Automatic annotation (TrEMBL):
Its main location: membrane. The keyword Nucleus does not apply. SUPFAM superfamilies: MFS general substrate transporter. GO terms for cellular component: membrane. It is a multi-pass membrane protein. It comes from Thalictrum thalictroides (Rue-anemone). Residues 1-114 form the Major facilitator superfamily (MFS) profile domain. The keyword Transmembrane helix applies. This is Polyol transporter like. PROSITE patterns: MFS. Residues 1-20 form the signal peptide. The chain crosses the membrane at residues 34-54, 92-110. One of its GO terms (molecular function) is transmembrane transporter activity. Coiled coil: none annotated.
Length: 141
């Protein structure tokens, strides 16, 4: 996703409105959407459905969904204001940097939950345990 945004920024900045530029723009946008859909896109939904205790999950997931939609709306609404000020290419360079920062954030702060029960995941977030560093074994739950 980060690479697609960066390529889109380069394409908009360097290739312009020519046939090659438009083709690269379309490929980059399609790639960005595809990688978002299988990458960072579902993180909000998966994370909010796993990190909260079962008895609070429905109430706690709602603010996560609202935050997701507000941030998405903020990006969409700000594009038309920011784009003329720093060019469309510059805007996508900024989006590329934000995308790279999101990768770092998810890598550092979002633990892997594959193959773990909801009870184990609850313990993980409750105690701040790091599964990858071996602070707790799966059988300890």
């Amino acid at each position: 996703m980060t690479t697609c945004l960066f390529v889109l920024a380069l394409s908009l900045s360097l290739l312009g409105d020519g046939k090659a530029g438009i083709t690269m723009d379309i490929i980059s946008v399609c790639g960005n959407v595809a990688f978002f859909s299988v990458g960072i896109g579902p993180v909000c939904w998966v994370l909010t459905s796993e990190i909260f205790p079962l008895k609070y999950r429905a109430q706690a997931s709602a603010p996560g969904a609202v935050g997701n939609r507000l941030c998405s709306g903020l990006v969409a609404m700000s594009f038309l204001s920011v784009s003329p000020a720093i060019t469309p290419g510059g805007t996508f360079f900024i989006f590329s940097v934000i995308s790279a920062l999101s990768i770092v954030f998810v890598y550092i702060y979002v633990p892997e939950t594959k193959g773990k029960s909801l009870e184990q995941i609850e313990l993980l977030f409750e105690k701040g345990v790091d599964w990858q560093r071996g602070e707790i074994e799966l059988g300890d739950v």
